[in-house]
Amino acid sequence: MIDFKAAIFDLDGTLLNSMDVWEKIDIEFLAKRGYGVPEGYINEICARSFEEAAEYTIKLFGFQEKVDDIVDEWNTMAIYEYSHNINLTYYAKEYLEQLKSAGIKLAVATGLPKELYEPALKNNGIFELFDVMCSTNDVSRGKEYPDVFLLASEKLCVNPKDCIVFEDVLPAIKSSKSAGMKVYGIYDKYSEIHRKEIEQIADGYIMNFKDAPFPFVGELWDLYDKQRNKTNLTLRRGQPILNGLYHLVVSIWVCNSKGQYLMSQRHPEKNYPEYWECTGGSVLAGETSLQGAIREVKEELGVDLYKYSGKIVKSILREDSQDFYDVWMFDIGEDCPELILQKEEVINAKWMNVSEIDKLYEQGMLHPLLMYYKDVL
Question: In the Cβ-directed half-sphere of 52, how many Cα atoms lie within 13 Å?
Fold first, then answer.
């Protein structure tokens, strides 16, 4: 499963089943000038901006015409088709809706001008799904360069490495990949000649959006029955748990040879803001209770407990929160590991003795979940 926060889509041949329309336009455009469509012509212009494609056409055929005049003619021929006759590729709308419902940001990065892409998207009922729309008209170079993809990620406020691009043509796949983005190639008959190279470069290749990747959104938990037997069911965090099923939660106390315990202070935007606690969290699908405990401390505090022995000092079934709650104790002796705080979760951390923890309790700044602490410390 590939992870991403934003998805950037090409239109022609990717979301829009429009490449046959451009073949029709090319045939009519060149026929008026006494030419047929040369082999490879469509592949040559499909990754270029309209202006670049016009410049290429003028040079190829030796036309004595202006770039703007050719672009205007193409636009006039295409506007009606894009407003009325262009349909979506298979499963495109459903995939966009799934991503949108999962909180993934969506963008268009196309070589089409606004007067073409806007009516096509509106006519197919997907215009409102996109957060950002970018055209090569908005940048100085075509899709053989990453400019339009980088513009989309900038407007989305998402780092390029957290973006996935869906494209059908090789030059655009190369350029978006060079920008550090995840890239999926999608089948189109006009770019089939480059399929092997696309498959070598891209992170994945799909025939249609039915097979497109879905991001890991939120934590996934294994579910257990009341006897703590793992079922074949999983649950995504935030979804309700069916009656009679439970997930695993861990709290982890880390102590040293001085009788001190590693405590952390919660981020102000979390529940119980700025309260102090030992590290804790839910065990992810596929993990054991021990693995979940080691991961949580590594993620939040940067301390690797793998080489230390830990033991469960308290374990209860909590019906109100439908979980098995395991309390772990790790003794790291005289070691003094460097702390690397996960800024989204933790704003401070320090070693405290029991009397200092008692003071937190008296001040009402100890997380309520840890009211049992005198039983285990």
Answer: 18
pLDDT tens sequence across 234-274: 887 777 888 999 999 999 999 999 999 999 999 998 889 99
CA distance 372 to 314: 9
Partners of residue 266 on adjacent β-strands: 346
Pairing of strands 247-255, 230-236: unpaired
Is it the case that residue 202 has pLDDT exceeding 80?
A: yes
Return the structure tokens found at 76.
């006039």
- Look at residues 286, 278, 223, 280 and name the one whose alpha carbon lies nearest to residue 253: 278
Strands annotated E in the chain: 6-9, 16-17, 87-88, 105-110, 132-135, 163-167, 182-186, 204-206, 220-224, 230-236, 247-255, 261-266, 276-277, 279-282, 310-318, 323-331, 346-352
Q: Which structure tokens are listed for 201?
A: 């470069």
Phi, psi (rounded to 5 degrees) for 111: -90, -5
Res 197 pLDDT > 60: yes
Mean pLDDT over each residue of the chain, to the nearest integer: 92
Enter the tokens of residue 137. Answer: 């008209």
Tell which residue, 263, 294, 268, 269, has the closest CA to residue 281: 294
Residue 278 banded pLDDT, cuts 50, 70, 90: very high
pLDDT in tens, 65-87: 999 999 899 888 888 889 988 99
- Cα 109 to Cα 47, 245, 331: the distances in Å are 11, 45, 53
Contact status, residue 95 vs residue 209, Cβ threshold 8 Å: yes
Closest CA to 13 of 101, 92, 79, 80: 92
Strand ranges in 1-115 using DSSP code E only, listed in sequence order? 6-9, 16-17, 87-88, 105-110
Please tell me the distance from the alpha carbon of residue 184 to that of residue 169, in angstroms, as a whole number.
Answer: 11
pLDDT digits (tens, 9 = 90+) for 183-196: 999 999 888 899 99
Cβ neighbours for 338, distance < 8 A, ≥ 6 positions apart: 302
Q: Where are the beta strands (DSSP E) in 92-135?
A: 105-110, 132-135
